[in-house]
Automatic annotation (TrEMBL):
Substrate binds at F150, L151, R152, E153, K202, F247, L248, K249, P250, G251, G255, K319. This is UDP-glucose 6-dehydrogenase. One of its GO terms (molecular function) is NAD binding. The keyword NAD applies.
Length: 428
C-alpha cells in the first residue's frame, strides 16, 4: 500500500506525530479532530506542542498536499484504507483506562467505513480492546489492528522514523501485514502477531521501564545510606547488555502522560483476570515514596522545616525537552512543598503558565532571589550553564538539591553553595 489513504482521528501528540510522519512516508493523510480551532491552526501549519521537527513535517505535508486537517470523521473516512484511532485513553475510575473516546469514534464511523478499511488502534488500549471494537463495529468486512506507538515526548518524530521495532497485531493476519507494509520504508524489525499480544506489548514495555526506574530510585536511596555513588553503580550495571545503559537515571520519580497511566491500567487488567501484579504495584508505591524522600531532602537543605522556607524550583515539565506537565513529578513535589508552608518560585524554559501554589517566573535567576534553597526537578541542560556564582549572590541560603544529578557538584560548591544530589556522596 504505497501512498495509502489514511485517516488519523485525534490530533494530540500521538495522532499529530503519526499523521505527519505517515505523510512524510508518502501516504495521503487526513487528520481529524473535534476541536475546530485546533484544526484551523494545524491547517495553517501551527503546532502548539513542543516536539522537535514536528512543525516542519506538518508544513511539508501540507505543502505537498499529502496532509490535511479536518473536523468531522464521517466524511473523512469514506474512502479510507486505514483509520488510525489516536484519541485519549486517560486513567478512569479505579486506574483502568477510560475508553469512552475510542467508543464514541467507533459509534460515529461504524456504518460509513468502506469495506476492507482497517481500524488501527495507536492509543495505548487495554488488552481485549481490538475485540471490543470489532463487536462495537458489528462488521465482518472491517478488520481491527493493534499497532501500538513507542514514541517518547521530545523525540517523537525521531522515534517514529527510527523505531526499535514495529508491532502490529490482528486476528486477521493479512490486515496486520497490510498495516505493517505502510511502514516498509522504515528499517526496523517487525513483530506481526495477534491483537491481544500487540496490545500487551505496549503495557509490558512501559511498565517494565517504570519498574526499572523505581528500582534505580530505590538503589539510589540505598547508595545514600551505604555511602556508594549511584553514578558509578548504574554505570557498572549498564555495561551488562542484559540490563542496558538507558533508563537508569534516578530522579524525582517517573511521570508524564504514559507511565503512570499505563502502570495503573496494567495492575487493573491483571486484577480483572484474577492476577495480583504485586511487583508492579510495588513499583508504583516506590514512585510515590520517591517524591516523599525528595521533599524530605529539600527540608533537610533548609534546616529541617519547610514552613515559610523560600524554595526556588528549576524545572516543572515531567522531563526535559517538553512543556508537558501531565503527571509531572516536579508538580507533585512543588505542591507538597507548598503544602508544608514553603514559598515556591519556579522557572521552566518551556512553561510560562500560572500554576497554583507557586509563582512561575520567566527568568531562572528570579527563582534564586532570596531563596533558602534551589531545587532542580527537570533535567534541562540550560541549568548547567547558569552563572552559579551569581545565583549564590542572589540567594539567602546556600542549599542546592539536584534531583536529576544534572549539575557538576564542584561547580556548585566552588560557588560557595552546598550541593545535594541523589544517591551520591556529598562533595568534600
Ligand atoms: C514513554 C515511553 O518511553 C515511550 O516508549 C512510550 O511510547 C510513551 O511513554 C507512551 O506510552 O506514549 P514518555 O512518557 O515520553 O515515553 O517519557 P519517558 O522518556 O519514557 O520518561 C518517562 C519518565 O521517566 C519521565 O518522568 C522521566 O523523567 C523519567 N526518567 C526517564 C527518569 O527518571 N530516568 C531515566 O533514566 C529515564
Amino acid at each position: 500500500m504505497s501512498g495509502a489513504r489514511i485517516v488519523v482521528i485525534g490530533t494530540g501528540y500521538v495522532g499529530l506525530t503519526t499523521g505527519a510522519c505517515l505523510a512524510a512516508l508518502g501516504h495521503q493523510v487526513t487528520c481529524v479532530d473535534v476541536d475546530d480551532v485546533k484544526v484551523a491552526r494545524l491547517a495553517a501549519g501551527r503546532v502548539d506542542i513542543l516536539e522537535p521537527g514536528l512543525e516542519e513535517l506538518v508544513t511539508r505535508g501540507l505543502a505537498a498536499r499529502r496532509l490535511r486537517f479536518v473536523v468531522g470523521s464521517r466524511a473523512a473516512v469514506a474512502d479510507a484504507e486505514a483509520v488510525y484511532l489516536c484519541v485519549p485513553t486517560p486513567m478512569g475510575a479505579g486506574g483502568a483506562a477510560d475508553l469512552r473516546a475510542v467508543e464514541a469514534v467507533i459509534a460515529e464511523i461504524a456504518d460509513v467505513l468502506p469495506a476492507g478499511c482497517a481500524v488501527v488502534t495507536k492509543s495505548t488500549v487495554p488488552v481485549g480492546t481490538a475485540q471490543r471494537i470489532r463487536a462495537l463495529l458489528g462488521r465482518d468486512d472491517v478488520p481491527v489492528v493493534a499497532n501500538p506507538e513507542f514514541l517518547r515526548e521530545g523525540t517523537a518524530v525521531a522515534d517514529f522514523m527510527h523505531p526499535d521495532r514495529i508491532v502490529v497485531g490482528s486476528d486477521d493476519e493479512a490486515a496486520a501485514r497490510r498495516i505493517a507494509d505502510l511502514y516498509r520504508d522504515l528499517s526496523a524489525p517487525n513483530v506481526i502477531t495477534d491483537a491481544a499480544s500487540a496490545e500487551l506489548v505496549k503495557y509490558a514495555a512501559n511498565c517494565f521501564l517504570a519498574m526499572k526506574l523505581s528500582y534505580v530510585n530505590a538503589i539510589a536511596e540505598l547508595c545514600e545510606r551505604l555511602g556508594a555513588d549511584i553514578v558509578s553503580v548504574t554505570e557498572g550495571m549498564g555495561h551488562d547488555r542484559r540490563i542496558g545503559r538507558s533508563f537508569l537515571k534516578p530522579g524525582p520519580g517517573w511521570g508524564g502522560s504514559c507511565l503512570p497511566k499505563d502502570t495503573h491500567a496494567l495492575v487493573q487488567v491483571a486484577e480483572s483476570v484474577g492476577f495480583d501484579f504485586s511487583l508492579l504495584t510495588a513499583a508504583i508505591v516506590e514512585n510515590i515514596a520517591q517524591r516523599d524522600r525528595i521533599v524530605a531532602k529539600i527540608a533537610g537543605a533548609v534546616g529541617g522545616s519547610l514552613a515559610a522556607a523560600r524554595i526556588g524550583v528549576l524545572g516543572l515539565a515531567f522531563k526535559a525537552g517538553t512543556n508537558d506537565l501531565r503527571d509531572s513529578p516536579a508538580l507533585s513535589v512543588t505542591s507538597m512543598l507548598a503544602a508544608h508552608g514553603a514559598e515556591v518560585t519556579a522557572y521552566d524554559p518551556a512553561v510560562r503558565e500560572a500554576l497554583p501554589g507557586m509563582t512561575v517566573v520567566d527568568d531562572p535567576y528570579q527563582v534564586a532571589k532570596d531563596a533558602d534553597a534551589i531545587v532542580v526537578l527537570t533535567e534541562w541542560a540550560e541549568f548547567t550553564k547558569l552563572d552559579w556564582g551569581y545565583v549564590a549572590d542572589l540567594m539567602q541560603g546556600d542549599g542546592v538539591v539536584d534531583t536529576r544529578n544534572l549539575l557538576e557538584p564542584r561547580t556548585i560548591t566552588d560557588a560557595g553553595l552546598s550541593y545535594v544530589g541523589l544517591g551520591r556522596p556529598r562533595p568534600a
